[in-house]
Every structure is written in structure tokens, then in C-alpha cells.
Amino acid sequence: QVQLVESGGDSVPAGGSLTLSCTVSGDTGLCMGWFRQAPGKEREGVGIIDSAGYTNYADSFKGRFTISKYNAQKTATLYLQMNNLTVEDTGMYYCAAVIHNCYTYWRKGVMDYWGKGTLVTVSS
Q1: Residue 73 has pLDDT above 90, yes or no
Q2: What share of the chain is helix, strand, coil (3-state, %, to 5)?
Q3: How remote is the C-alpha of 61 from its chain's centroid?
Q4: How confident is the model at residue 43 (pLDDT cuts 50, 70, 90)?
Q5: From CA 9, how far away is CA 31, in angstroms rounded?
Q6: Residue 105 near residue 44 (C-beta atoms within 8 A)
Q7: Helix, strand, or coil here: 54?
Q8: Maximum distance among all alpha carbons in the chain?
Q9: Quick count: other Cβ atoms within 10 Å of Cβ 80?
Q10: Taking CA 33 as the corner, what is the angle to CA 22 and CA 29, rounded to the nearest 5 degrees?
Q11: Which band of pLDDT confidence, cut at 50, 70 and 90, is reported for residue 59?
């Protein structure tokens, strides 16, 4: 079992930066990623970090968003650094983890464990 709890969501002005965190307990060695659901839109994948620490991003997020992970003894923290935010970045951000076939499933949004999300609001 894996428990994921996001935090760090806030209201920020356009052009600003924000870092989201996701506290991970249980199996902390899984492939993990961030997803976003904007108002009125389907959930989309931002990117993942695999068990070896390699990252992969959806094209629309490359260059502005960075995923990293800190491994502690029994827990881990997944981060999403977001820069140069626009109003289109407004939405609920979720962290998630998948047991197998990370690079196949994450782009389809097929993950085994999900957090409840944290809200980011970007104002113009």
C-alpha cells in the first residue's frame, strides 16, 4: 500500500512560481508522478520520476515544471516545482504512483495510487 498526501497549493499571480509537495508512505520506491485537472477539463499527466530517479514530462510542461524526489528512511517526498505560471495552470494537482509499466501507464493516467489533490489558482 502507498499513501500520498499533497500539499503546497496556493493562489499565486501569473508569472510566479510555486512548489508542490507530496508526502509518500508505504512503498516509496515506485514510479511516481504529478497530474493536473484544470476546471472543465480532463486530468492530464505532467510528468513522472521513476525508481531510478529519471524523469519524463509531457511536452506542454517541459522547461517550466520540474519533478524531484527526496527519499528519507521510511518516507519520501515528491516535489513539483512550477515556474512562470499562467492562468492556464490553474487546477487541482495530484500525485500518483504506479507499480508496473510506468512509462506505458502514466501517459494514459493509469496509476495504482492517488492522492486527494491540492488546488493551485493562478490569477492574472
Answers
A1: no
A2: 10, 50, 35
A3: 11
A4: very high
A5: 22
A6: no
A7: coil
A8: 41
A9: 26
A10: 80
A11: very high
* More confident: 96 or 73: 96
Residue 8 makes CB contacts below 8 A (sequence gap 6+) with: 18, 19, 20, 21, 118
55 and 109 in contact (C-beta within 8 Å)? no
Residue carrying C-alpha cell 502514466 = 106
Is residue 33 within 8 A of residue 46, CB to CB? The reply is yes
Asked whether 51 and 31 are in contact (CB, 8 A), the reply is yes
Could you identify the residue written with the cell 515528491?
78
Distance from C-alpha of 120 to C-alpha of 92, rounded to nearest angstrom: 6
To the nearest whole percent, how much of the chain has pLDDT over 70? 100
What Rg, from alpha-carbon coordinates, does the chain have? 13
- Cell numbers of 12, please? 499565486
**Residue 24 to residue 40: CA distance in whole angstroms:** 28
